[in-house]
Specification:
By secondary structure, the chain is α+β, with helices and mostly antiparallel strands. The protein has helices at residues 26-34, 43-46, 48-56, 90-97, 123-126, 156-159, and strands at residues 69-70, 105-111, 114-120, 139-140, 142-144, 150-153, 172-176, 187-188, 212-213, 220-232, 239-249, 258-259, 261-264, 267-270. Helix content is 13%, strand content 24%.
Length: 282
Amino acid sequence: MARRFRLRPISEVDESEVNKSGGINRREFMRLSFNTAAGLITLASLGSVGFASFLMGQKSRSSSDTAIKFYAPKGSNVWYGSMDKQPMSYQAFADEAANSTTGMSAAAGLWSGLPVIAVYVPHEENKNKPVAANVPRFQYQDGFTESGAYVGSGYEVDELEEYAPLSIHDNMVIIFARCPHLCCIPGWQLISNNFTEDSWQPGGTDEGGNKLFCICHSSRYDPTVIEKNRGNNRTTGNSFEYIGIRKTGGPAPYGMPLIPFTVNGDMIEATDEYKDWYTFCA
């Protein structure tokens, strides 16, 4: 049975690269992306095939539409590499967190062909401790559009029945892992820099590490900050409000939405109450 709890307040393109249709194909997009100052990574470090497939995602072969499977990018050295394509185990996250200075752990996965990132945060253990660096917990905060317009509060997860499936539980969140900038897939500690180091700062700022980091153009996200914000369907132009994590830096216009989940025995399974929230890359 999942435990639920309330959160405590916390005080550059060369024309030769453009194809006949006027766009940039995926191969050239990737090459140009890696040439940005934000890349700080070479194709050799992840493998061009591995990273390309990671960007595209893969259709799940599971007979279950709810189970989330680990997805280890080819050529990467992630802690869950030996569990690639296996169902996500909750205990695996808890065990890995024990090896972390902050007690946090995270992994990329696939759910029904969609890329996700599961993040474990020792909220239960830390929620009553004084707020301090490297003592992470989930934080509810207000969400604002790029223009500064107030959208709503992360506290609505506990206050409004429509968001009840997202109530924080089991020290974990599942995040739809498409960067709202250009729909690349951010990662957890795939490269080393100040944003990805094993550290944590409260307040949802761009300080501290343990950010989800998009290596294409350097957007950063704090997976411990839950807020309400507004996204847009790229096909229809329709806007929608969603509950998700905070963007702390980079060109992305807003953060990434949450996906409800349950822990069934030791298996992490996602549910599909908010499918419209995952259309901003449609």
